[in-house]
Amino acid sequence: MELKVNGKTHQLEIESDMPLLWALRDELGITGPKYGCGIAMCGACTVHVDGRAVRSCSLRVGDISGEITTIEGLGSPEAMHAVQAAWVELQVAQCGYCQPGQIMSAASLLGVNAEPTDEEIDRAMSANLCRCGTYPRIRLAVKAAAANLRKSRS
After folding, report:
1. For residue 77, what pLDDT is reported?
2. Shared domain check, 48 and 89
């Protein structure tokens, strides 16, 4: 099985029905995506496949066609992604467990909608659960990241 993860191609000897989350964590040692519920409901395992946010706990590796990006590959060695930078600047995280999934969902949203409304942010982010309740700071960080992305593009 061949998987392209964070810009690097990996050859893995795994079953095609293995969840992507286990391939990432157990086979490749990529620990940003977290196991939460195992049924694609909490969002802790969110990664991108070709820029689209997906739940890696319920996605079989055999069903993937495209490049996988995890939180580790979202930014670059030289600079964080705008969403990551906003998370740090606004001190969004408390416990931090859900934050990689939150950030990946936010980055996916901003990839298709550069100026989301509060309602659009809430709708896009509502599938990611945060037991600490940092939702108001998450919304502020998404708005800040959107503004920074727009500024950098102009």
Report:
1. 85
2. no
What is the structure's pLDDT at 79?
92
Two structure tokens written together for 31? 């620990």
CATH number of the domain bearing residue 40: 3.10.20.30
Q: How far apart are CA 110 and CA 85, in angstroms?
A: 14
Residues 118 and 95 occupy one common structural domain = yes
Q: Report the length, in residues, of the chain.
A: 154
User: How many domains, the chain?
Assistant: 2
99 and 57 in a common domain: no
Question: CA-CA distances (angstroms) from residue 44 to 11, 48, 97, 147, 153?
Answer: 25, 13, 7, 25, 30
Per-block mean pLDDT, blocks of 10 residues, the chain (154 long)? 97 97 98 96 97 97 97 93 96 93 97 96 93 94 96 86
Cβ neighbours for 133, distance < 8 A, ≥ 6 positions apart: none
